[in-house]
């Protein structure tokens, strides 16, 4: 029995003038209905590329995709565009970061929400408009029956993000992919949107993939967490496990880099030295080894030559022994976190 | 990597002395419209009567959401924008209307670091040219020559001095921000106005730059006006903090006041909205008693337009405590009962001085409807 969304050994490569970019390098995860998976990583970690390839929104001419993406048992990699088009909007939908570019400035908000509904259900113009008003009300737009005829520029940033959520949810998709849905928003609005997504999910029972760079955002929103670095998943587990007892030195680095409202202000932050690698020529072995402080402990050479494996279920792709991961975190990392 | 570099000795000026002072600082951007002759039809009230003091050697944090006027305040203080009203003084000298000549010596003491390390560096200039630019303009010839000084500055900010002849595109975002910092240091400033200096950077790189700025403050005695929307970063970096909303400071105080004993409902709402990794525990939140959760505050809607800000208290349209008085009478920024000296807030009905809450405030109608439905269904 496979999961509702099952990604197995996903490889995504782009050919560019400078060479081949290994954007996603052997990624696997499962997601069930009603659950939320958080994918966390910095820019260039491959988190957004993963979502685009699930939806088939990548540029087919320059992108090579290998591996399996099964949605409710249906293979999406290599599926013809006609099949993907039927699924997009109806069975799976996406929320983008930048609502100003994701919405068309030429059409009213209502028309943009109604369009996928008409396409997938064959509803009449009038029914679809009624549905758009309902959706706007559901996501908290005041005076929805008037605002339905507004253009996107007449909405504030938070309202546009809500309209985009309405558009994504209009056909009751079973899978929702939200790529940095709140990054462009102010913190008070972000809190509203995240709570709203969670509440709507409880009503619809859909599966959500939430992609973000902010560990704080996932903490209260997702069930499972996948940490990505240089196109690979480096740690996986329940969000509680990963944030309370992280096992990968990169996750330790991320947590140490983030100031918190409770951390000791007299202690400097503990950044990760160096910069993320170029995906044109990722480092051999463990992609994190050039920035890792624990390579010597893990055996040194093995980190540079051998690629660590991410075990299924809870775990981290790191050559340190399980015992060592636990003690290093408890003794060296945890005391520094607020 | 950067920890072993020796830094120049601290600047003169005793710590704590007021350096940069704004009183009643106001900036209204006119909105022009009409046909055939364009006339002034309104104004964006970006900054409206802001008082603040940056003291020598301290970091003063300015937080708020987009459109609250924090960046405009920074630009006014450097005189990159002309204030509509109010007074700016630097070390006791009124510079509100100072001309180019009077400003020249002061400008070298007040420097800026910008948010976007991609657009704030000239792509056609080498790092050496960019960092030595301020010295060239001000005709400064340090002993040993400009090039030696630039190499020294690159070393101070954690860049390889050998990269003197490289161009900005050869550097990553974090490294570019270090170039911006080196340029700001070139004239040995006393105050640096840092406008969202780390918000364009990845988390791991952000921490590197925050630590670098902290080191400059401690070891060189440079004061900072640190403008940012990230409350945790501001808390980490600033000893005193002001919270802005729609062009006004609604609360100001020490870090402990603002983050531990806030009084203004908006400060409470902001702090409550910060997503924290502790939330994964489902229990521990800032200020929350062990085992107890801190009640959420979820406001409705977005910040209103600064073209027509609400009458009276500007926060009243999103506030759960608003009463008739809030619409008619603008609350002054004063020391509320029980506040420490210097902890000012502008609210008629201040909150109790704690961040631990046992009640939730949910104003968002969709959120309320959805949660009621969930409650009824499950």
Give a quick summary of the entry.
The complex is a heterodimer of chains A (338) and B (378). In chain A, helix 7 (157-169) runs parallel beside helix 8 (187-204).
Task: Describe what this molecule looks like in 3D.
Chain A is α/β, with parallel strands linked by helices and 338 residues long. Chain A is built from 14 helices and 11 strands. In chain A, the strands form 2 sheets. A 7-stranded mixed beta sheet of chain A has the order 6-7-8-3-9-10-11, with helices on both faces. A 4-stranded antiparallel beta sheet of chain A has the order 2-1-4-5, covered by helices on one side. In chain A, α4 packs across α5, α4 (109-121) packs parallel to α7 (157-169) and α7 packs parallel to α8. Chain B folds into 2 domains: 18-34 and 41-238, 3-Layer(aba) Sandwich (Rossmann fold), CATH 3.40.50.300; 244-377, no CATH class. Chain B is 29% helix and 21% strand. Chain B starts with 17 loop residues before the first strand and ends with a helix. Classes of the chains: A alpha/beta (338), B alpha/beta (378). At the A-B interface, α7, α8, α9, α10 and α11 of A face α6, α7, α9 and α11 of B.
State Rg of chain B: 23 Å
So how many helices of chain A? 14
Structural Rg of chain A: 21 Å
CATH fold name of the largest domain in chain B, please? Rossmann fold
Number of strands of chain A: 11
Structural class of chain A: alpha/beta
Secondary-structure-based class of chain B equals alpha/beta
How many domain regions of chain B? 2
The average pLDDT score of chain B comes to 88
**Uncertain residue ranges of chain B:** 1-6, 282-292
> Could you name the CATH homologous superfamily of the largest domain in chain B?
P-loop containing nucleotide triphosphate hydrolases
Multimeric state: heterodimer
The proportion of residues in beta strands of chain B is 15-25%
Give the biggest sheet of chain A: 7 strands, mixed
User: Averaging pLDDT over every residue of chain A, what do you get?
Assistant: 92
* Percent of sequence in beta strands of chain A: 15-25%
- Could you estimate the helical fraction of the residues of chain B in percent? 25-40%
- The best one-word shape of chain A is globular
Compute the separation of the termini of chain B in Å.
55 Å
Q: What's the order of the H and E elements of chain A? A: EEEHEEHEHHHHHEHEHEEHHHHEH
């Amino acid at each position: 029995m496979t999961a509702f969304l099952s990604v197995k050994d996903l490889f995504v490569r782009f050919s560019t003038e400078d060479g081949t970019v290994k954007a996603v390098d052997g990624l696997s995860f499962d997601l069930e209905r009603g659950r939320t998976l958080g994918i966390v990583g910095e820019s260039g970690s491959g988190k957004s590329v993963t979502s685009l390839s699930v939806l088939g929104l990548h540029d087919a001419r320059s992108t090579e995709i290998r591996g399996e993406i099964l949605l409710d048992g249906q293979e999406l990699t290599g599926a013809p565009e006609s099949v993907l088009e039927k699924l997009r909007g109806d069975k799976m939908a996406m929320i983008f970061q930048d609502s100003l570019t994701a919405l068309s400035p030429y059409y009213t908000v209502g028309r943009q929400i109604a369009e996928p509904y008409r396409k997938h259900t064959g509803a009449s113009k009038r029914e679809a408009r009624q549905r758009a008003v309902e959706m706007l009300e559901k996501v908290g737009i005041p005076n929805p029956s008037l605002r339905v005829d507004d253009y996107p520029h007449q909405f504030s940033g938070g309202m546009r993000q809500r309209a985009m959520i309405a558009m994504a949810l209009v056909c009751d998709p079973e899978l929702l992919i939200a790529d940095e849905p709140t990054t462009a928003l102010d913190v008070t609005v972000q809190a509203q949107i995240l709570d709203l997504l969670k509440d709507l999910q409880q009503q619809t029972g859909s599966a959500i993939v939430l992609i973000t760079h902010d560990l704080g955002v996932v903490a209260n929103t997702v069930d499972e967490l996948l940490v990505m670095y240089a196109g690979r998943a480096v740690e996986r587990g329940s969000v509680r496990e990963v944030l309370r007892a992280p096992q990968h030195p990169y996750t330790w680095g991320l947590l140490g880099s983030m100031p918190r409202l409770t951390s000791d202000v007299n202690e400097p932050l503990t950044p990760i030295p160096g910069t993320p690698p170029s995906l044109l020529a990722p480092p051999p072995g463990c992609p994190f080894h050039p920035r890792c402080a624990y390579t010597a402990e893990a055996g040194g050479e093995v980190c540079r030559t051998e690629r660590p494996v991410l075990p299924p279920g809870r775990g981290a792709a790191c050559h340190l022994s399980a015992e060592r991961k636990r003690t290093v975190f408890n003794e060296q990392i945890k005391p520094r976190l607020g | 990597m950067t920890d072993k570099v020796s830094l120049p000795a601290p600047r003169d000026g005793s710590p704590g002395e007021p350096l940069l002072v704004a009183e009643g600082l106001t900036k209204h951007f006119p909105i022009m419209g009409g046909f055939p002759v364009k006339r002034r039809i309104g104004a964006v009230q970006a900054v409206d009567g802001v008082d603040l003091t940056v003291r020598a050697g301290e970091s003063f944090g300015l937080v708020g959401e987009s459109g609250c006027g924090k960046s405009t305040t920074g630009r006014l203080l450097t005189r990159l924008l002309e204030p509509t009203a109010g007074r700016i003084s630097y070390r006791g000298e009124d510079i509100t209307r100072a001309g180019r000549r009077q400003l020249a010596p002061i400008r070298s003491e007040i420097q800026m670091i910008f948010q976007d390390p991609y657009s704030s560096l000239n792509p056609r200039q080498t790092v050496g040219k960019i960092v030595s630019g301020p010295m060239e303009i001000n005709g400064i010839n340090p002993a040993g020559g400009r090039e030696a000084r630039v190499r020294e500055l690159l070393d101070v900010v954690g860049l390889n001095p050998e990269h003197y002849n490289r161009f900005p595109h050869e550097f990553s975002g974090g490294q570019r921000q270090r170039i911006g910092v080196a340029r700001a240091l070139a004239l040995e400033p006393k105050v640096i106005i840092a406008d969202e200096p780390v918000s364009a950077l990845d988390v791991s790189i952000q921490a590197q730059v925050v630590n670098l700025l902290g080191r400059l403050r401690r070891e060189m005695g440079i004061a900072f006006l640190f403008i940012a929307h990230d409350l945790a970063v501001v808390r980490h970096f600033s000893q005193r903090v002001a919270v802005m909303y729609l062009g006004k400071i609604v609360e100001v105080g020490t870090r402990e006041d603002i983050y531990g004993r806030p009084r203004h409902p908006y400060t409470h709402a902001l702090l409550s909205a910060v997503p924290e990794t502790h939330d994964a525990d489902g229990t521990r939140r800032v200020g929350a008693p062990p085992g107890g959760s801190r009640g959420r505050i979820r406001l409705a809607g977005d910040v209103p337009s600064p073209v027509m800000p609400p009458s009276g208290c500007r926060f009243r349209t999103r506030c759960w405590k608003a009463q008739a008085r809030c619409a008619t009478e603008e609350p002054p920024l004063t020391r509320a009962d029980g506040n420490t000296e210097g902890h000012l807030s502008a609210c008629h009905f201040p909150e109790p001085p704690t961040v631990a809450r046992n009640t939730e405030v949910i104003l968002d109608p969709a959120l309320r409807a959805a949660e009621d439905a969930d409650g009824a269904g499950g």
